[in-house]
Automatic annotation (TrEMBL):
PANTHER family: DEVELOPMENTALLY REGULATED GTP-BINDING PROTEIN-RELATED (PTHR11702), MITOCHONDRIAL RIBOSOME-ASSOCIATED GTPASE 2 (PTHR11702:SF31). Mg(2+) binds at residues 172, 192. It comes from Peptoanaerobacter stomatis. This is GTPase Obg. An essential GTPase which binds GTP, GDP and possibly (p)ppGpp with moderate affinity, with high nucleotide exchange rates and a fairly low GTP hydrolysis rate. Plays a role in control of the cell cycle, stress response, ribosome biogenesis and in those bacteria that undergo differentiation, in morphogenesis control. GO terms for biological process: ribosome biogenesis. Residues 1-158 form the Obg domain. GTP binds at residues 165-172, 190-194, 212-215, 282-285, 311-313. SUPFAM superfamilies: Obg GTP-binding protein C-terminal domain (SSF102741), Obg GTP-binding protein N-terminal domain (SSF82051), P-loop containing nucleoside triphosphate hydrolases (SSF52540).
Amino acid sequence: MFVDIAKITIKAGDGGNGCVAFRREIYVPDGGPAGGDGGNGGNIIFKADNNLRTLLDFKYKKKYEAENGQDGKGSNMYGKNGEDLVIKVPVGTVIRDTDTNLVIADLRKNEQEVIVAHGGHGGKGNSHFKTSVRQAPSFAKSGTKGQQFEVNLELKLLADVGLIGFPNVGKSTFLSIVTKATPKIANYHFTTLTPNLGVASLKNGDSFVIADIPGLIEGASQGVGLGFDFLRHIQRTKILIHIVDISGCEGREPLEDFEKINKELEEFDEKLSRKKQIVVANKMDLLFDKSIYEEFKDEIESRGYKVFAMSTATVQGVEDILNYCSQLLSQIEEEDIFDDEEYYTDEKAVKKSTDDIKITKEKGIYKIEGDKLERLLYSVNFNDLESMRHFQSVLENTGIFDMLRKDGIQDGDTVSIYGFEFEFYD
């Protein structure tokens, strides 16, 4: 079963709590503090695996949790760190934050890894809080929680060339001729229900991957037919082979077919309409009036496309198409299918989820909470001045300082964000 979309919940491990303990030594107040630190929680790591082809497993298991860090122990013994949880996904999987729809990671290479949810930090044991005036601290720090949120997994197949066109124009037949793929072929619409991949090998030794995308129809970008479900799989391709039924045996006009499919590509993703496209007039063996092809070719080439005549029944023109594809592929560089603004950053997440942020005032301290804000806090190095300045800039740019002002905060008041405290000055 081919599954290319899934939604799951991931939960990194919580940090273990610091320990309150004392040594039993003579002449040492309460034996002296000896509480160890808690261990860090395990991370959630996604890893691309070439052996996987579908997201089927994620349809049955919806929640993934990493191991918690162990609590600290006496005698200054640290708690064990939680084990990371490695989740394997097919190469080509895109991971998005469900709340913001921003791209967290695009796993395009085999064994590529990314930490998506960070484990909580272990709490400090009471031995850390000993001072000259506090020889026997009877408190320790709790561990912080691991990050938890929903992510959408979206598989976009890795192929150099994508086959597009209306149903029953000969895409599956073309794939079966030029590769060892064995797609289902029949003389009715929507024979192909899942994308098929095949490797085309040329006589000169070159090879490339071709993806046969299930038949598109008018309205596909709005969810009509099957096209909406599988258009994402041609987003990575470098070249599109647009196959048109030149014979008109389906009762459609070839030029209208060409224009309708391109309109659907543009409405789904404007970048698709800019991809290099080769137009193939198929079923030439069924065309009795060759002037129809010549008129079609003149019109399409006047728009800047290269047109080939083909018959999958007689294999006419197939080799020329493959050779031209190979030539074009050598000239096209791989590019990222996402723009910079589509990628996840903690700052963008906080900005898009300000509704999630809550401010409460307890004993004169303004406490700020919010899942995305907690994630941002993990990325700040509080020992680095530039990192601190960036953190303050985020709080200002995302409107959090405005929210504090609205709640009546004054200069010198204390602000607390998940245990990190600072004084507010406007």
